Amino acid sequence: MGKLFIEYPPGSCAFSCGGCGIPLASKEDFIRLCKPSDSSDDQGFLFALSYNTKESRQHEKIDSRERGFTLVRTLSCKKCQAFLGWRYEFSKKAPSIEGKCLLFPKNITTSK
What we know:
seven-stranded antiparallel beta sheet
């Protein structure tokens, strides 16, 4: 296995993986709190960019709120492989979230 290269977000890193502490996003990339389009009650953090993540193949996400066709990639930590959230590739009803990352608070840690 090769050496793991860790990217550091520009500015202040405020969001890290809850499993291993690797930096994931900066305060500057934070957009807003966002409720995912599935039936869960969890809120997530919507970011313009994420760092140190691996993406799965593109797949359709089941949408119980009738928001239409949505394609996502599952995001996991590139160091410990913990599930972190999704990257939205295409959304018929909400094109403003395309290319954005949704990270779940239960899987990440925040610093002040």
